[in-house]
Amino acid sequence: MEKILLSFRKLFLLSTVCLINFFTVAVNSQNIHENAGTRAMPFLKIGVGAKGISMGESQVALAHDMYAVYWNPAGLSSVKRTQFAAMHNNWFEGISHQFIGVAQPVGRGVISTSIIYLSYGTITGRDANGKETEEFRPRDLAMLLSYSQEFGNTALGLNLKWVSEKIIEDIGAQAIASDIGVLHTIPGKNLAIGLNIQNLGTKAKFVEDSEEAFSLPVNIKFGLAYHVPGDKLAITADINRPSDNDLTFGLGVSLTVLQRLHLRTGYKYELGGNDLGAASGITTGFGITIGDFGLDYALGSLGKFGAVHRFSLLSNF
């Protein structure tokens, strides 16, 4: 049992290191947050949708499509027709991240369902002596049911999530979680204020006969979004307060030219310095809208791990 728990801790730490821009244990050990590596399901912190990623991950007050299920479920209330969204992200060492979802206006609100899937590829197991054993394929999965509704200038949104993490055949865990979002638009000011409290839920236990259970990575997002009249320019700013890391700040700009082309850039900064270097906080990308179909691309950097390319699409029916 001790060997199993040790293997789990090593893989859990590895997954935390490898996940997007929230790498907490990569460079300076003296700066590690006291709760780093203590939360289960760290994949829940990975943003979805190339648009949001390319704007420094500052979307809590701007998200208004299917991808709002991650940034702020209250933003789903802006969906007026059936909408389909999908994202693909290939990282390094065989790690891949996928998202797919559909939203449907129903009555006075909008309901949606979506799936988030993270695969770590194939990993070769080793015994206590370092000898190779069977290969295994760790993976993370989240299934979401979301609802949002507008009440005047304020929208409310809720996600219900079933999340699962599998390490090897006999080691894995499940949990139930929720996100609560609020989005308020100030009339005549072209300004929106957003709040999203993420991953409130049960603890995850990976070994049945163990008393050790892990909390989920609770995060509080707060942000502002300003639209220049005509919606050709948007400026965003977010603050994130995660339970297992330092404060992060995100800034983003989106400029629409020729009505169909959207140019975006942003910067994300972790209090005390980005672990993978200052350049790792820079994000950029673009989107193309043709009729009811949109394609978005985001480029980010993981420092010495290299560049990250994200592609996502959005379609209205």
Provide a quick synopsis of the model.
The chain has one domain: Porin, CATH 2.40.160.60. Helix content is 8%, strand content 51%.
Notes on the protein architecture:
The chain is mostly beta strands and 317 residues long. It has a single domain (2-316), classed as Outer membrane protein transport protein (OMPP1/FadL/TodX) (Porin), CATH 2.40.160.60. Helices cover 8% and strands 51% of the residues. It contains 3 helices and 16 strands. The protein has helices at 2-18, 50-54, 68-71, and strands spanning 83-90, 96-106, 109-119, 123-126, 132-136, 139-151, 154-168, 171-186, 191-201, 219-227, 233-242, 248-257, 261-270, 282-290, 293-301, 307-316. The strands form 2 sheets. It has a 14-stranded antiparallel barrel. A two-stranded antiparallel ribbon has the order 4-5. Strand 8 and strand 9 (191-201) form a beta hairpin. The longest helix is centred in the N-terminal third of the chain and has 17 residues, at 2-18. It is globular, with a radius of gyration of 19 Å. It starts with a helix and ends with a strand. The relative contact order is 0.19. Mean pLDDT is 85; it is low at 1-30.
